[in-house]
Amino acid sequence: MAEDAEESATTEEPFRMTANAQKMKRIGSSEYESLARAAAIELYPDVNSSAMALCFNLIRAANRMTTDMEVSVHRPMGISFAGYRLLFTIKSVGQVHPNELARLSSVSTASIASLLNTLAKSGLVTRAPDPEDKRKTVVQLSDEGEQMVADLFQINNQREQAWAAGLTETEASILAELLRKLLLHHPAPRTS
């Protein structure tokens, strides 16, 4: 009898999970922000909600845009978003050392060698000894890299325009200026 009850409970469990899954609904962006704010207050009652909302939404927007650019623009062209950032950075600054390239393009120094190897194998960049310091290497675009970044930039910018269309031109300009200001601000390192 106990076995029958146990077996009955086991066979009913998938039905309960299915019923619970049916009760779950898709959480919208605004609702998620409200739920996150409530969770933050529960975790830390002295939370600075404005600072949290700024960082929370900035990171969410950046992640969403990055993923969209990767899927809509870069992968179809046969390159990663990180690879595109490297190509665009080299196009912007010219010959550059790998460490400086990593810093400017927001790619980790651990990843830079692998990315540069991939771009070099694809014929998009060349590496040569630095004429002023033979111990260092400089990276520059090849002719193929110049063409790739030109082709990608146009498509990338069209996608940027699609994202920016959610704001007025004035709002986009103000947001860009505020983001520049935020990027120039460097909080003191966190101490224990």
UniProtKB/TrEMBL annotation:
<keyword id="KW-0804">Transcription</keyword>
<protein>
    <submittedName>
        <fullName>Putative MarR family transcriptional regulator</fullName>
    </submittedName>
</protein>
<dbReference type="GO" id="GO:0003677">
    <property type="term" value="F:DNA binding"/>
</dbReference>
<dbReference type="GO" id="GO:0003700">
    <property type="term" value="F:DNA-binding transcription factor activity"/>
</dbReference>
<dbReference type="InterPro" id="IPR000835">
    <property type="entry name" value="HTH_MarR-typ"/>
</dbReference>
<dbReference type="InterPro" id="IPR039422">
    <property type="entry name" value="MarR/SlyA-like"/>
</dbReference>
<dbReference type="InterPro" id="IPR036388">
    <property type="entry name" value="WH-like_DNA-bd_sf"/>
</dbReference>
<dbReference type="InterPro" id="IPR036390">
    <property type="entry name" value="WH_DNA-bd_sf"/>
</dbReference>
<keyword id="KW-0238">DNA-binding</keyword>
<dbReference type="InterPro" id="IPR023187">
    <property type="entry name" value="Tscrpt_reg_MarR-type_CS"/>
</dbReference>
<dbReference type="Pfam" id="PF12802">
    <property type="entry name" value="MarR_2"/>
</dbReference>
<keyword id="KW-0805">Transcription regulation</keyword>
<feature type="domain" description="HTH marR-type">
    <location>
        <begin position="51"/>
        <end position="184"/>
    </location>
</feature>
<dbReference type="GO" id="GO:0006950">
    <property type="term" value="P:response to stress"/>
</dbReference>
